[in-house]
Amino acid sequence: MLEPSYSQLMERINEDAGNHKITSRYSIIIATAKRARQIIELINQEAAGELRDKRKIEEAIDFRERLRTTKPTSIAVNELYRGEIKIKERDVM
Q1: Which pTM does this prediction carry?
Q2: DSSP codes joined into one string, 14-80
Q3: Is residue 35 in some structural domain?
């Protein structure tokens, strides 16, 4: 079984959400996929020598090390669970 579970993740995300509770699995899936793509893009930019910001370079190196044992999607889910990234709901009109 994967940890955290969907229900654990939803509970954690909504702890500090106030009036803007996330109720859609789709929102969690999209946020996780976007973050995983950001992680991959950061690593690719660092490998191509495109990064100039020392903090971003160190972050890319850290992610590269973590990716030896963990997939980008798992890293993104764990960041979401720990509150390191937030889901922003857009108003649709």
Answers
A1: 0.85
A2: HHT-TT-----HHHHHHHHHHHHHHHHHHHHHHHTT----HHHHHHHHHHHHHTTTS-HHHHHHHHH
A3: yes
Classify residue 91: in a domain, yes or no. Answer: no
Q: What's the CA gap between 60 and 64, in Å, rounded? A: 6
Number of domains in the chain: 1
Task: Provide the 10 A C-beta neighbour count for residue 75.
Answer: 18
Q: How far apart are CA 78 and CA 72, in angstroms?
A: 10
Q: Which tokens sit at 28?
A: 């969690």
**Could you read off the pLDDT of 48-93 as tens digits, one per residue?**
999 999 999 999 999 999 999 999 999 999 999 999 998 887 655 5
Task: Give residue 74's domain range.
Answer: 6-82
Task: Give the DSSP letter of residue 83.
Answer: T
Tell me if 87 is assigned to some domain.
Answer: no
